[in-house]
Design goal:
399 residues; alpha+beta; Dna Ligase, domain 1; eight-stranded mixed beta sheet
């Protein structure tokens, strides 16, 4: 499938390649009036108005990069959790597929499973890039995380943990995950870390012991939550994803390694994986104050990201940098990633002029296996779920 046809599909509002919006609304309403009302009130731009189309070659390139990253990071320690919902985020353009970052607490998996499921019976052009029965796949993923650490003991309870969850934009996803887990016979809590209580025999929420924490915190090393870190280190609770997962995969300095052929060879990485990484990971380098003149001169070719950043916070496109912000970057821990522009998708919303939105493609990965491929449509520098017609989007493979 040539790039020109994919670009045509994404560059036009084509009736025969449109999503079944009524089927999505029915799937959302089926979750209950309270949940549906929360989505409408809090996040009306949660789901995009159009699918994103990709080619078989683009999918193969993304899979090759993911497999290569897995080779670089190596096998986890024995009896250790693997980490749920890794998000490999790519920009797709005429030059190929470009891994922008890896997230170890990527949101949206449950919501995108609902989106994909809503279109199963539609005649939408292309095919979904998702495993069948995603809900069951996700449940088994959590059970496997538990089994890796605890063996054959049954998984009875999970706490979905984030700071002030009631005020989080993706609260509807937490509630959806809770419903799905409880349908599978697993007690689920949505909890702020402050309400979790450490006792000699484990971690408790509302007086009930927690077996496993589904960690949605963005304090990746848990410095702010020493009671959680201690409970994890003492194996009083299974924590997924955990600080080890972040260091192995998602620390932005890892991107510098993944785009450095010499360092990869020194680690004994196979030539096939090196080739996939050099082709699929934009060159990334640490920003050092002693190289200030170089970075300022070359800034327009780079995108600057804080080492421990997330969600686009503190990230800057080089051509938009002011001297003041640049000086702040030099005093902080940053990487610079060679600019790889995102693809664009034209979206037509009723009552509004057609507009081209940027998109990135997220592969949800567990144990090196791609469970689901979704996209996010947005305006501006980063995904914000504030754009009419934007939000999580279906990805359809054109074979």
């Amino acid at each position: 499938m040539d790039h020109a046809f994919i670009a045509h599909l994404n560059g036009e509002c084509l009736d025969w390649a449109a999503m079944d919006g009524s089927a999505l609304q029915s799937a959302l309403q089926a979750q209950g009036p309270a949940w549906y009302g929360l989505v409408q009130e809090r996040c009306p731009h949660l789901f995009a108005a159009a699918p994103v189309f990709i080619s078989e070659l683009q999918l193969q390139q993304m899979r090759a990069v993911i497999a290569a990253v897995e080779e670089v990071v190596g096998a986890p320690a024995p009896h250790a959790a693997l980490g749920v919902f890794y998000g490999y985020d790519f920009h797709l353009n005429e030059q190929g597929t470009h891994l922008i970052e890896v997230n170890t607490n990527a949101g949206g998996g449950f919501l995108n499973a609902l989106l994909v499921g809503s279109q199963r019976e539609s005649n939408l052009y292309g095919v979904p890039v998702a495993e069948d029965n995603l809900e069951q796949i996700f449940i088994e993923m959590f059970r496997n995380e538990w089994r890796l650490v605890r063996g054959d003991a049954p998984l009875k309870s999970i706490a979905i943990v984030d700071e002030h969850p009631e005020s989080q934009y993706l609260l509807p996803e937490f509630q959806l995950a809770k419903t799905i887990l409880e349908r599978a016979g697993i007690t689920a809590h949505i909890a702020d870390p402050a309400v979790l209580e450490t006792r000699d025999d484990g971690l408790y929420c509302s007086g009930k012991r927690v077996d496993l924490i589904y960690n949605r915190l963005t304090d990746f090393d848990l410095q702010q939550f020493p009671h959680l870190r201690s409970a994890w280190e003492k194996q009083q609770v299974v924590l997924t994803p955990n600080p080890d997962h972040y260091l192995r995969y998602a620390d932005k300095r890892k991107l510098a390694l993944l785009s450095d052929a010499g360092s990869l060879r020194a680690r004994g990485v196979s030539q096939g994986s090196i080739n996939a990484l050099l082709q699929g990971v934009p060159q990334t380098r640490l920003v050092r104050a002693e190289d200030a003149e170089h970075w300022w001169t070359e800034r327009k070719q780079w995108f600057f990201k804080p080492v421990s950043g997330y969600g686009g916070k503190g990230a800057y496109r080089g051509e938009k940098l002011t001297k003041r912000v640049f000086e702040e970057i030099l005093q902080s821990e940053y990487v610079a990633q060679r600019l790889a522009v995102p693809g664009e998708r034209k979206v037509c919303v009723e009552g509004a002029e057609p507009q081209s939105l940027k998109y990135d493609v997220r592969c949800y990965v567990y144990d090196g296996r791609v469970q689901l491929v979704a996209a996010r449509l947005y305006q501006g520098q980063t995904t914000n779920f504030r754009t009419p017609g934007g939000g999580f989007a279906l990805v359809r493979l054109v074979e």
